Amino acid sequence: MESAGNGRRDAALGGLAVLPDELLCAVVDLLQPTDIGRLACVSSVMYILCNEEPLWMSKYLSVGGHFEYKGSWKKTTLARLNLCSENSELEQKARHFDGFNSLYLYRRWYRCFTTLSSYSFDNGHVERKDDLSLDHFRSQYDGKGPVLLGKLADSWPARTKWSMQQLVHDYGEVTFRISQRSPKKIIMKLKDYVSYMELQHDEDPLYIFDDKFGESAPALLEDYRVPHLFQEDLFDVLDYEQRPAFRWFIIGPERSGASWHVDPGLTSAWNTLLCGRKRWALYPPGRVPGGVTVHVSAEDGDVDIETPTSLQWWLDIYPHLAEHEKPLECTQLPGETIFVPSGWWHCVLNLETTVAVTQNFVNQSNFEHVCLDMAPGHCHKGVCRAGLLAVPGKSVGDMENHPPGTITWNHNDMTSTEERLKGLGSVTASNSESQCSSFEFSDVDKSLENQVFSYDIGFLSQFLEKEKDHYTSVWSPTNPIGQREAREWLRRLWVLKPELRGLIWKGACLAINVDKWYACLEEIRACHSLPAPSEDEKLPVGTGSNPVFIVSDNVIKINAEGGLGYSAHGLGTELEFYDLLRKVGSPLINHIPEIIASGFLVYEDGVYRTVPWNGKGMPDVLAKYYPLELSYANSCFPLGLWSKQQFGMDGSAESSNRPIWPYMVTRKCKGDIFAHV
């Protein structure tokens, strides 16, 4: 028999009593539902821990699928897994035990049942404007700071049609996507979701955050239009299937919301509220909010953010912030539109049931930032989000050595492949002596020692990793579009928006090193007396892995993929194939492009030079940059098919950063590129 009173915890947990309740709950969460059921029978305290609603919510979210709420997460999960029937023992009254107290469980319970009606309306720190001219918006707010705008949605049909009652009437049977920090996709019919909202008492309630609503409920698209201030979107040149997710239909109950984040790809966003009230908190770029940790992988630049839920942040962290540490704040009312500039951190808490629509966009103001964020590497991604604390080579002293309210870097959690950047401090990251005496700046740019963080593209681009080949390196999986799609996007912009070519060129230099490849093109052209490219021909074409330029009737392909060994064998094999067709008199020779020139492009002492090569013999330039010990080096085609097979079987890894690239110039064929066929 377990003892009652204050000793229940020790008696019920035995040796596990030394573990805090938070850790015990985390351990239980690792178990399968059937094992949780068995563990609940061990003791009264285990029974309590194993019947926590957040635990069973977590178990369901790990399963995913079509969601239908049964009144509790335990019942919903067990029904989803076919572990109980509708009339099972779950209908029995829950057991209650005296003598057990847990501050951790109480705080979680409080967050589940607290109400937010006490949040009265206030002007906050974000400016409110009825409407703005486009010129006024661009000069005062676009790329500079958030603003709340009224009257932009006054004429929308959604102002009257997007009440919960009307939405359920019109779209009750339509399935929408649910947003939640879960590895599994969750979908619900709108009528089931509304039923869930009315019954739930979750700390972090599910909410509809659907980027495909235009497909499942196309009539919703007719109920609003993009406000005149935000109609420029440079992703519009892509087909709908090609462009990244950009618009969301949002419904959420009280206590739900979006935790701290920077919008994907450093895009800007607008959000119009149709029903309810939202509380917003915002920090400028480079300022990590307190309680938030940014992870940036050094391997592929993948960005991951650890953050409490929006409710938890407002209840547990916000009250302890000094006045100078608090974010910009505002309460958004129905009919108001908030603009969030590129790079701004923001957190949203629904004070009551809300309905909203939001879109992200790329315009002239944030275009270069979006292109910069696409570039491979991790340092620039960290600096864009966490300021100068992401600069490699910087070290942080003990916490005692830092004055209160400064940003700190969790150096103890750093690994070889990941930097963890943790924010605790003031809105601006200053390099003044009083704040950064314990920081040791790297050799990336000595001038940083006397600079403060700036979201200016010239400042941020200093942190691009120069050794990365931006055309062929692996891109981050969190980039809004893939590497090939980005090249297609930039090419379309170049052709369709000639008035923006100065800006597009700058973005292409950041994203795909187009200035480097254009310099290569110019050297090849000069060497072989090819015509100069027209304005339309200055960007690479196609979506292949190598830069390809079409200049007049010539195709110039620069082999960059896979490193020097791989690309040199690729060129050698092609040249051997062409030579073989000519020798045997194959009719296939009439159906392949004529080779005009081939060779290697070498970068030495800041200058590009060409070394012509027809595939025969071993060129001296390879012996210098890539010595190949081949028994067949003196054969007719030493880098032909046989050598390529041997090279492939060798399997040795090779750096792709050697300053030499094979190239080939051929006559342009008629017809579409293979990728479009």
UniProtKB/TrEMBL annotation:
- GO MF annotations for this entry? metal ion binding; oxidoreductase activity
Q: Report the subcellular localization.
A: Nucleus
Keyword Oxidoreductase attached: yes
Q: Which UniProt keywords apply?
A: Iron, Metal-binding, Nucleus, Oxidoreductase
Location (main, coarse): nucleus
* JmjC domain span: 215-378
In its UniProt entry, what is this protein called? JmjC domain-containing protein
User: Lineage of the native species?
Assistant: Eukaryota, Viridiplantae, Streptophyta, Embryophyta, Tracheophyta
